[in-house]
Design brief:
7 helices, binds magnesium ion, globular, binds adenosine-5'-triphosphate, single chain
Length: 280
């Protein structure tokens, strides 16, 4: 370390690392949000087409039954459009960057809603196993960011469709609430497994047809966010069988007087301490 400028103290360097980690989270969030807006705008447009077609149908047909049917379809489509706008705004809104007691099941449902059409398009059967868990202190939009990153990775690992299991469960032994995203996709070879949390590590050739993927920042942001939350992220994978990410979030935060950014530094562990396991 002696070649580093002596004018920087260890604390200052730690602060800089923390600030950069925070910037990475923010940048990845902005890009993920942009990708999501692309997908949902497309869906929104499809809904508008439905509304327009049924409106024309209703105008053409004079009989009450046909008009009622058209109005019902228009109402259903508009309700879905309203729900999409609500969810995107929910994501985009800067929910307080504070730790607040949060029901993770709601974050899961919101994320699944946003990705529902995309999962259908890629023929992915989503199985939600949501157990009753207590509210835990999290920065809600950061945890949602983690969830979206993991779900999109899982979807991209199954280009020809497959199964995706999302589980929320309490682990009383570790005093954590666990969020598990399990896919039955291509899996990750052992040599890549060590690098997947590194910034810019990607095996994708740029964005896919939905405009997602390829920067290699998704899991790096997940890792930072989980560290800020004093949690752990673990991955198990077998080539050809699939991958399982487990996020363990503590039910109670160890309170410090530091801001969450500084907490990230204090909790920073060497990468090897993130349990990375291969095989099921
Ligand atoms: N569920 C998964 N199945 C198989 N490989 C995965 C999975 N999740 C991540 N990977 C591998 O880890 C790499 C890094 O993932 P990461 O999410 O950080 O970046 P990315 O998906 O390539 O790009 P983006 O920044 O858009 O998320 C991926 O390129 C892929 O090789
Ligand atoms: Mg990704």
């Amino acid at each position: 370390m002696s070649e580093l400028s002596p004018s920087f103290t260890v604390e200052q360097l730690q602060e800089q690392i923390a600030s950069l980690q925070q910037q990475l989270i923010e940048a990845q969030r902005a890009s993920a949000l942009g990708e999501l807006v692309g997908t949902t705008t497309h869906e929104f447009n499809n809904i508008l087409m439905t509304v327009m077609n049924y409106a024309k149908l209703g105008l053409r047909h004079q009989d009450q039954a046909a008009r009622d049917r058209a109005f019902t379809k228009i109402l259903q489509a508009s309700e879905r459009a309203a729900e999409i706008t609500r969810s995107v705004l929910g994501m985009a809104r800067n929910r307080k960057p504070n730790f607040e007691p949060t029901q993770l099941a709601e974050l899961i449902r919101e994320a699944m809603f946003l990705l529902e059409k995309e999962m259908q398009k890629y023929r992915i059967a989503v199985e939600l196993e949501i157990h009753e868990v207590p509210k835990i202190p999290v920065i809600a939009n950061q945890i949602q960011q983690v969830l979206l990153n993991l779900l999109i990775n899982a979807r991209q690992a199954m280009p020809n469709g497959g199964r995706l299991v999302v589980r929320l469960i309490q682990d009383t032994a570790t005093q954590t609430v666990d969020l598990i995203v399990r896919d039955f996709g291509v899996g990750i070879p052992a040599e890549s497994l060590k690098r997947i949390f590194d910034s810019y590590y990607t095996t994708k050739r740029g964005p896919d047809a939905t405009g997602k993927g390829g920067t290699g920042l998704g899991l790096a942001a997940c890792r930072n966010i989980v560290q800020v939350h004093q949690g752990k992220i673990r991955v198990e994978s077998t080539v050809g069988k699939g991958t399982c990410f487990t996020i363990k979030l503590p039910m109670q935060r160890v309170e410090t007087s530091e801001t969450p950014i500084a907490v990230a530094v204090m909790d920073r562990q060497p990468p090897t301490s993130i349990p990375v396991e291969n095989g099921f």
